[in-house]
Write a structure and sequence with these properties.
The protein is of the alpha/beta class and about 230 residues long. Helix 8 links the parallel strand 6 and strand 7.
Length: about 230
Amino acid sequence: MTYAEKILKYYDELKLPDNLPEGVEILYPFAEEEVQRVTRLFYNQFFNDSNKRAFLIGINPGRFGGGATGIPFTDPIRLEEVLSIENDFDKKSELSSRFIYQMIEAVGGSELFYKHFYFTSVSPLGFVKDGKNLNYYDIPELQRAIEPYMVSEIRKQIAFGAHPTAFSLGKGKNISYLKYLNKKYELFEQIVPLPHPRWVMQYRLKRLDEFIDQYVQAFAPIINEAN
């Protein structure tokens, strides 16, 4: 099976976590026909091979990015304007997606980037509460309840073919929890933290080029190793 086939099979079979705290709802876009259509176009275009890839691990999908399109860190605007995949989604911009696709361009463009890297999240599905995005770590009860689920889903994706070095998109609670999981479950040889895209765009926009360069420098060894 190609990497694309493995990813699409995974999402086709993805189950919802149970035991969620009261008031917490799941973002599950994969039942929608438009999500199924664009994810197949995307993965078949950029992952139609058997290359191992380094995992870039976010927190969990948000309402306007992966929670809408089914493609991590890819909002409907970037999907259409950068990746040339026309779509019927509400064209809302997502801060993290804006950063990611500027970074991808700096690395060398989507074709080169996705040949070496795979976006996922600690939780493959996002959460909302009271109509707002919710991170898996915002409610300790949620984090505890879905730990087995999250570890199981990460392992299923590692089986696609993962580079031993992974990257955490987030230097705070996300890398802290990933290091805990990695020590307990031995998922990767190492996990390297990078500043979260949304944090950069929201609080450090004037230093955008500096943070993009951090990503470029961090990813260069992965790309060079494969060439």
